[in-house]
From TrEMBL:
Annotated SMART domains: LRR_TYP
Region of interest (Disordered), residue spans: 29-84
Protein's gene: Lrrc43
Gene3D superfamilies with a match to the protein in the record: Ribonuclease Inhibitor
The protein's name: LRC43 protein
Amino acid sequence: SISAAFREHLRHLRLQDFPCGRGSWVGGRGGHGHGGSAGLSPPLLSPSLQNKSRFDARTSPRRGRPGLGADPAGQEEAVPPGEESPEVLMELLSDRHSPWALPPDCSPQDQRLREMAVLTPELVRGSKIFQVFRSLRIIGKGVEEVDEGLLQLRQLEELILSANQISRITSANLPRTLKVLELCCNVVADLQDLCAQPPPELQHLGLGYNRLRGPSQDKYLTADFWPNLVSLDLSFNSFTDLLGLVSQLSSLQKLRVLVLQGNPLALIPTYRGFLVDSLPKLSILDDVHIGPDERHQFHGLARQPELIRSEARVVVSIGEIQGVPDPSVRQQLEVGSEAPVITYSYRVTYEF
């Protein structure tokens, strides 16, 4: 489930281990080591007691705000003996040679969470951490279920769940604050559950590389479900009915970015021109900007639906086949021979 993947993500960040949180490295071999390296003693780190006095929530005259210690002029005096200053701890997080540095491909939010765990650890402890997340990226973790645990992230605006194994999404389990929902490279085949109670403020919906088929799914792509949608990615699915899909998409008055490439309907010769003329508010189609010249070129095409053919012709040329007898060459038999005549025939099938 997504809750399990989220908990694993938090464990990976180690927000309560040194140098984050209130962790310590006592005598160079404390119990809060990172990544199983508790026996190592980094050169920038001195033995310390538990780093907790700097994070006292009570504000004293010497401390302008909780979690950040004293003002710069009195910083060294405010840090008790035996404890590292916030500057030293932050250096351990940012130095790429540090054993506590995050990998280069981590998200900016992961880095900010680690920094918060140093400067204001009280904000990332217990249930408070759920209020911190504005963006959540769970990519390629084998997630199959979007469970109700996601509702704890009450401030979540961006949810990226690409390259998982999600086949259905229960909209009741999605935070109502969502503005971006990316489900690229999953196995979604039906939008009914997602559209039961969709997030009302959603601006981007990414459904590329899934198993959606038209026209049964076209009816879920309207303003009745997505009144604020600005960007829609339906690429590399199995939509075939261009006229039916356009009739539904035309209700999305705020739609500016649309991706349909990779669907069978994109093979229609007048595909792009028909979309450009049918959706006059569209700015980008299949990652290509729509300019004034293109709009003028295709003006009026939307009023000629007969140009959208419902069939296609495919010409296949076979250059060479090896290992089978040539059926066009008949056997040359002697006159009066009673030997049976052997003929060969082959059938070649193509599946689209």
